[in-house]
Amino acid sequence: MNTITSYDENGFGSNFTNAFVNGPNGIAIDASGNVYVTTNANTIEKFSPNGVDLGVFASTGLNLALGLAFDRSGNLYAANFVGNTVEKFASDGTDLGVFAVVIGPTGLAFDAAGNLCVANFSPSIMRFAPNGSDADSVHQP
């Protein structure tokens, strides 16, 4: 629907923003409450906590980005599905390059130790150490 819906504690939904969002896929919220959304336009859009469109946060190195996750330092990671990578961005949107190569990454989450867990198309879940080295495979069917 090209919209982002926000739900309150009672489960009632409303439009988070009036901005058009081209096929929102992944979403993450930073420590300040800003909302980041991946789009079908190969961008990551940024919104203020109250839904004001702050524009394109990042648009390099992306080809159907799906999942998003922030590390403890405020860097944003994007599961770059078609590009078979996990891209890393500084808190100001600077592209820090490829963090890891993964076949069809779809979802991202950090564990308590700061390792990045990546769900992928193979299907498996891989865990990467904070420096990007492949820590191990968490799950393979």
Coarse structural class: mainly beta
SSE succession: EEEEEEEEEEEEEE
Based on the coordinates given, report the CATH architecture: 6 Propeller
User: How big is the Rg?
Assistant: 15 Å
Q: Count all strands and give the number.
A: 14
Q: What's the level 1 CATH class?
A: Mainly Beta
Essential attributes:
globular, 141 residues, four-stranded antiparallel β-sheet, mainly beta, Neuraminidase
Describe the structure in brief.
The protein is 0% helix and 48% strand. With 141 residues, it is mostly beta strands.
Model description:
The protein is mainly beta. The protein has one domain: Neuraminidase. The chain has no helices and 14 strands. The strands form four sheets. It has a four-stranded antiparallel β-sheet, with no helix packed on it. A four-stranded antiparallel β-sheet has the order 7-8-9-10, with no helix packed on it. Strand 7 and strand 8 form a beta hairpin. The mean pLDDT is 91.
Chart the SSEs and their pairings.
Elements (H helix, E strand, L loop, with lengths): L4 E3 L5 E3 L11 E3 L5 E4 L5 E4 L5 E6 L6 E6 L5 E5 L4 E5 L5 E7 L3 E6 L5 E5 L3 E5 L5 E6 L2
Antiparallel strand pairs: 1-2, 3-4, 4-5, 5-6, 7-8, 8-9, 9-10, 11-12, 12-13, 13-14
